[in-house]
Amino acid sequence: IDITDYRDMMTQLEETKMELEARIASGSQTLSETNARLRQENRLRAQVESRLRDAHLSRTRFMSATSHDLLQPINAARLFTAALKPQLPRGTSEATLRVVEQIDQSLRRAEDLIAELREIARLDSGKQLPRRSHFAVSELFEALAREFQPTAELRGLGLRVHHSSVWLYSDQSLLYRMLQNLLANALKYTAQGRVVLGLRRRAAGAEIQVLDTGPGIPEQDHVRIFHEFERLQRQHGQLEEGLGLGLAIVQRCAELLGHKLQLHSQPGRGTLFSVTVTYGQVRARPPGPVAEAPGQGLEGLHVLCLDNDPLILDGMEQLLVTMGAVVTTATDREELLAIMRAGGRPDIVLADYHLSDNDTGLEVVMAARQAGAPDIPCIIISADDSDVIRDRARAVGYRFLSKPVDANRLRALVLALTRSPATPGLATQRR
């Protein structure tokens, strides 16, 4: 029997088998090599992402710590200028008054810049949590109108605020900050015409709008302007002053709150920013705070100031003395408790939060209360205005003010907390 054809066929099958096995082996090797490369790329990507996260956290911590330290001397300088103004004699030249005012304005500008750095650092840290509540949008609009009307008049612009009866559900403080930045930007870049703040009812929520008649924003810049440290040019071609963080803060707040942020703008046709906010439920409004007479002083009040920075203590003392208060100062727990034991019970304590040796003003005043002054009012004053610090102060019945301290706010709050007849105090001491 001739089996030649059979053998040839078997040979071809064997060759085909060997070729397929070689291909499979080659493919397996290629697949293994590809998988190995992918694993290596994933490891490298994870390392890069970890380094980026570390760098981001390091930058955030640096910005927070640096801005906190920078606020301390600015706070002292603001206290000194606030104390200086009432002491200027009658007949002081206009030039001198103008210099003092320019110093104060420069300090306020520095304060604003540092506040922006602190805010962006706080938002990037992931520790900022929304505190949502139901509130009337009219509360925001009325406050914004009072704040920005003088700026609009100074720039020769119209500011129209269309009030609404709508209630919102959001973090009132963060939403107010967003609208502050949008209005400040609108007034800054608008050379003539007007800025409008209003609200439109949409199915998805209340759309708050800030419209201006400024130069408009080119489409290619619609994304870039929300980046950190980006500043657009004014109509005359010069870069705007500031750090370029205002809109970056707006975008981060919108993301945190889950609010839709939109921009519509064309060169020569103005700009419209809008924020869509969830509708809220109508609630009874709590009574507002009693306004203090602007000229009312602190005559007869004994104020005890606690701070580990002698420069700030000096500035605070000079400011309070010009308001008529009797002032005692302490730099730590031992000094404050010694004053209390000596019979120097004050009418109110103004305490910095972060003291030396990891002590806090909150804990020191709590110790003073336990030592025999259970009802002594206290204002915690700190450059660290985080929610954690505010909550700790509120939990024990203390009030909070952020540094740099505004003299009028400080006086009003001290008066609000010391309405009962003043306790006889000590003569002014320097400790």
Distance between the first and last residues' Cα: 123 Å
What is the CATH superfamily of the largest domain? Histidine kinase-like ATPase, C-terminal domain
Tell me the radius of gyration. 32 Å
- Any idea how many domains? 3
Mean pLDDT: 82
Could you state the order of secondary-structure elements as H and E? Answer: HHEHEEHEEHEEEHEHEHEHEH
Principal-axis shape equals extended
List the helices and strands and how they pair.
Layout (H helix, E strand, L loop, with lengths): L3 H81 L9 H32 L6 E5 H18 L3 E4 L5 E5 H18 L4 E9 L2 E8 L33 H12 L2 E6 L5 E7 L24 E5 L3 H13 L3 E5 L2 H9 L6 E5 L8 H10 L7 E5 L4 H9 L3 E4 L4 H11 L14
Parallel strand pairs: 2-4, 8-9, 8-10, 10-11, 11-12
Antiparallel strand pairs: 1-3, 4-5, 5-7, 6-7
Helix pairs in contact: 1-2, 1-6, 2-5, 3-4, 4-5, 7-8
